[in-house]
Specification:
alpha+beta; about 15% strand; globular; about 130 residues; Glutaredoxin; 5 helices
Length: about 130
């Protein structure tokens, strides 16, 4: 392995600290939960997780939104599936979430507080919310 300079080591340390900060759950009320069962992974869930992290990073929301993974959500035909939890809004399960849909969820659902009706698989019924 090649030797690293002090500046390279500091840069690596800062990069890793930033990566760890993105995974920290403390103080984060908004959650994006990506189904990472074998069916989700086969359908591209890893790229979906990366797209969420990139979109949240670009919107400077990594300190307020937690992206985490879970196992199979039981909707294999709609993978990748993503559950979005935003305080004051119904918890929503989105299906067929690729990179472009992930960016749309960040912009419209998380930032704009608006549901993406064309990708919703499940949400609480309105009479339960009332």
């Amino acid at each position: 392995m090649a030797k690293m300079s002090l500046d390279q080591l500091r840069n690596l340390r800062d990069t890793r600290k930033n990566d760890l900060r993105k995974r920290d759950a403390e103080g984060k009320e908004i959650q994006v939960i990506v189904g990472m069962g074998t069916c989700g992974i086969a359908a591209g869930a890893k790229a979906t997780v990366d797209a969420f992290i990139d979109a949240l990073d670009a919107a400077k929301l990594v300190d307020s939104v937690m992206v985490r993974q879970t196992g199979c959500m039981g909707l294999c035909s709609s993978e990748p599936t993503v559950e979005v939890v935003v305080p004051g809004m119904p918890t929503v399960l989105y299906g067929t979430v690729d990179a472009s849909v992930a960016q749309e969820i960040v912009k419209k659902h998380i930032i704009g507080r608006e549901l993406l009706d064309n990708h919703i698989l499940d949400k609480p019924s309105t009479d339960i919310l009332a």
